[in-house]
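*** Residues and shapes ***
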Amino acid sequence: MERAYKLEFAGERAGSLYVSCCGLSKTEPLHSFGPAQKPYYLIHYILRGKGRFSLRNKEFQLSSGNGFLIPPEELSFYQADEKEPWTYIWVGFQGEMAERILQNIGLTVVNPVFCSDHSEELYQAVKDMMEHNTYGISNDLRRNGQLQVFLSVIADGVTTQEHGEVDRADHYVERAIAYIRSNYCNPIRVTDVADYVCVNRSYLYTLFKNALGMSPQQFLTNYRVHKAMELLRTTELPVESIALSCGYTDPLVFTKAFKHVKRISPSGYRKEVRTGEINKNQDYLKQIEGTLLLKGGTMMKEQLLAKFGEVFGSTEGAAVYFAPGRVNLIGEHTDYNGGHVFPCALTIGTYGVARVRKDNMLQFYSMNFEQLGVIGSSLEDLKPEKEADWTNYPKGVIWAFDKKGYPVTSGMDLLLYGNIPNGSGLSSSASVEVLTGFILRDFFGFDVTNQDLALIGQYSENNFNGVNCGIMDQFAIAMGKKDHAIFLDTADLSYTYAPIHLSGAKIVIACSNKKRGLGDSKYNERRSECEEALRRVQKVKKVENWGALTEAEFEEIKGAIGDEVLERRAKHAVYENQRTIKAVAALQNNDITLFGKLMNASHVSLRDDYEVTGIELDTLVEEAWKVPGVIGSRMTGAGFGGCTISIVKDEAIEEFIKQVGEAYEKKIGYAADFYVVEIGDGPCKLK
């Protein structure tokens, strides 16, 4: 016996969530359906009996109390048991919110099976849909309302068969994002968001930082500014009305928030958009709504592939890759001076989806700079161009492979998404370079090691993009190892892995949000100063590089430099190298206190002798030093903006972020961002 009917309403196609079909089926033994596809989401819930369900080559044996999801356009098969054929209810549905709701519940294409004890409630919801099966606004609302009841019952205490309890952390973040999307136009606060998802504000902060790399307040502000940009582009509403439409009752507060995110006023943005002069290099909103950065997990991979298919027409032949960012624990501006560095790879970085083409065309697309669209080039035209923007980095690596004797013989389509803040000093450019090299090796079978990838990346940045960087960034990314830092001698590239055990403490990155680009900074100037100082010393003593000297040896020969500024630059290179050696030894002896003191001394040297910090980084570090529980803090990266790194005791992290953040915003005029980071592995291909 079977009772089922299908309901289709073309007028509802643009709705957020609506019923496509529903029914009740009592099946015969071995009754089956498929393999076949459906154009909508379809959930079956088993009231009695048994059966089996297959999706993506995975088979599930199911019985009463189980349910299963069939996503649209997915080939599936299900069959009733021979002895105890099942009876089930089923609901097909569509709409803009369908995928997000199912993800919130925990039902996905890789996790499609669930258990629920609420069989009577589920049956009554479907029964009510079936009884209101005729066309009309009243029945439409009733039926779609029961669909929401049906899904809410599934969500209430649902467990998935494969993975157990749904990941609550991601669930909370998704619910918070949905609330913000629905209520950004009202003057909501982060406290309101936390209350809605039933967690305290501090815990919500931690969840957002871990999942999205930003605070709830940052996400809310970015989302409102993103919506304001749309209104500024497409309407003639005055700024005051746009502010109110985006949840700001005070236009001055709105203008300040907009300028902080866009580095331009709302009226200035509107003017530049209208005149076609908008700066392509501005940092546009990086947040992809509802996307959780799951460290290369299935959810991220599926979203990347979906976007790749949208941009390039299909996903056939495409593969997904990841390369991390990096942070240097100590040893700054020593890598091009022949000294030691102590960096580690991070779990944030750059994701890439790529495939080989049959021609010589290169097609690049960044989800972080979607307004730039697809940027094209070819293997016959590999030269740095200002209008090529970020694509100069992957182009440079392709060029460098050819120069090193590894010609790339086919073009490729490449989509990137990064969760490293641009210009933060966490090596977003080196991450792209190593990622590109890793992809080329995988595609063309080049006989190169990960260390070779680092050297090729450095070569491309030096010779294609014109930045005189050292080897540290690319090496740390290419050679990263989970929970280890790399003690690297840049003079000969000898290295050892040092385990990082910060018992009761964590690494916290503070991003100053003062953007900088290596090519536009004084990075090259500092390198030239060190080289000039070395040339002067080499006239009186044989010295290979500054990393070869101890502090005492430097003091003996520094008079040969003959210039106070050059002397201070060289002093930093020598003393920082020795600090790095001592810091690694301290860590190996579990003397984290000494390690922290050496970090502090590193910053003082970078501030006073090397002069690469500036008021933003100095404020972050000096305020960090005031917080009890901070073991050490210093700027990291090239300087002139970017980030600081601090080692903070677990119990002090929340107060650290609050105290340093408030002091920084008060002094500088805009907010800093904070990241509690983990040490991760090097580049990989996501399975």
Notes: Residues 25 and 138 are 26 Å apart (CA to CA). Residues 298-481 form a domain with the Ribosomal Protein S5; domain 2 fold (CATH 3.30.230.10). The longest helix spans residues 564-588.
